[in-house]
Amino acid sequence: MTDAADDYFGNDAATFGDRVTAAREGLGLDQELFARKLGVKLKTVRGWEQDLNEPRANKLQMMAGMLNVSIMWLLTGEGDGPRDAEDDALPADMGELLADLRRTRADMKDLTDRMGRMEKRLQAMVKAI
Known about the structure:
The chain is mainly alpha-helical. Helices cover 72% and strands 0% of the residues. The longest helix is centred in the C-terminal third of the chain and has 37 residues, at 92-128.
């Protein structure tokens, strides 16, 4: 991917629209072609990318497939995002290690989120005593 695309989803604060834009641009698709392939109006794609509205589930699924990313990545930034061209140039064992590192990072974030929810539950229990 290009450095410009990294600006969209490299940051933890990236939005749904940022991720759609980055993945679309990473594949070299303009908004017009992307809209046509999805069977929606250009105005609709612009609304998604500007976070003014969200797609229905069927369009979200089509979008993820077309962009070769997971639905979860589009929605939350976690999961399988766009592949970097640099990843393809790595030897197989390095690529596997990089993928494993990314999965571990996602797992750690999930565990951190889970621990936060558990802590809130515990705090509520303590207050109830």
